[in-house]
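Deliverable D4.2, example record:
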Amino acid sequence: MSPKPDSLSPPPACAPGTLPARTDVLIIGGGLLGCAAAYYLSLAGVPVTLIEQGELGLQASSQNAGSLHFQMEYRMIEAGLEASKRALQAMPLHVDAIARWRALEDQLGVSVGVRQKGGFMLAETAQQAQVLEQKSRLENQAGLKVELLDRAALQAKAPYLSDSVLMGAFCADEGKADPRRASLALAAAARALGAQILSQCQVVDLKRVGSDWQAQVLSGEQCRSKQVLIA
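Output generated by the structure prediction step:
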């Protein structure tokens, strides 16, 4: 379902009577994660309500560079082999995210600034180069395509890098996106699929009532759901 370009405006505020009494999944938080969850759940036919205490995407989701970084971080490798293997368990999600970001603009029908032209992790010491080699080997085994580049290959691909860089790990699928616009586009698409999305809707209480979750917002209204995602 593709939202119209003019549908990227913020969702309505939580006026009395707009919060549904029941939903299958209640999402608390309207950043990129919450909006993406609302969209993909709605795409799967799941009744969803998303509530945001402020405006969509105005907190951490719009206060970052929008980097699409899929390689493992240095700290995950430096902590030892067992820690690396634990971190590697998330790699199927990284590989899935690559495909989802690559298809997102066509799927939504709007531009959200996705540019996947590659990203580097760099080594300036022999020890860092050894870590990059281990990291890249594990990632390729797990399905993430990472290319190790020596000094000459780096010079050819990225001549702007300092001469102090000895080696680079290059992932061609990395890049950037506009997190604010992506959040709004995902929310618009979710609404087009039937999701209820409300801003200015602050949760003041959340508790179990039988097999349900019951959330109460500042106005006093309540919503019951089978599941809750705190995003």
